[in-house]
Write a structure and sequence with these properties.
The protein is an alpha+beta fold and 201 residues long. The chain is built from eight helices and five strands, in the order βαββαβαβααααα. It has a five-stranded mixed β-sheet, sandwiched between helices. The termini are close together.
Length: 201
């Protein structure tokens, strides 16, 4: 069982692709090799394969990276299932994980949602998608400053608030306030809940 995240940049026409594509490539490159495990295609769409346990955390890393850029957002569909054919290019691989992810992206685009999951278990889908609907209200409203600090914390959990304060040239109390506004501890708890629900598959 694998997870496939298919995504597209919302309002990509409002920004030069150079403003986000290099950063996204750099992030995905730290996870795995392209084009077997990830690829950016058709200008503003991308697909990545990852472990099921990591899918929510990686989706949030992508979300916070893109929200670093003014007026940009990202739509993410997590598909969980099998891989029956593995190609040298992820866009040519196949299986229920790919089908679930690709079809789901089209559905949430029509519905105006920005994060959803589809597995082979209807109960898991129901529980996690209700959670994602609530969580997206918060994620979609991240400011650039909030997204920046969340991204740093998600990609390096060992960072202290003092280190972040130095990196961002702000006070430690300002770092603390930003993390509280972003509900960072709740994000961590949500990821733990996600892993518990996924274990039911």
């Amino acid at each position: 069982m694998i997870a496939v995240i298919t995504g597209d940049i919302i309002s990509s026409q409002n920004a030069e692709s150079e403003s986000w594509i290099g950063s996204l490539r750099n992030l995905l490159s730290t996870w795995s090799a392209t084009p077997e495990n990830w690829e950016i295609y058709r200008g503003d769409e991308f697909q990545i394969k990852c472990s099921v346990d990591d899918a929510f955390a990686k989706a949030l890393m992508i979300k916070s990276l893109i929200k670093n850029i003014e007026n940009l957002d990202v739509r993410l569909a997590i598909g969980v299932g099998n891989e029956v054919f593995r190609s040298e290019k992820i866009t040519e691989s196949n299986g229920s994980a790919y089908v679930n992810s690709g079809r789901l992206l089209n559905e949430i685009k029509a519905e105006g949602r920005t994060l959803a999951i589809r597995t082979e278990n209807d109960n898991v889908n129901r529980d996690l998608n209700i959670l994602f609907k609530w969580a997206s209200i918060d994620f979609d409203g991240w400011s650039v400053a909030t997204a920046e600090i969340i991204h740093r914390m998600l990609t390096n959990r060992d960072l202290t608030q003092e280190q972040l304060a130095r990196d961002f040239s702000i006070s430690q109390s300002s770092v603390s306030q930003r993390l509280k506004r972003a509900n960072y501890e709740l994000i961590y708890e949500t990821n733990q809940f996600f892993k518990k629900k996924i274990a039911e598959l």
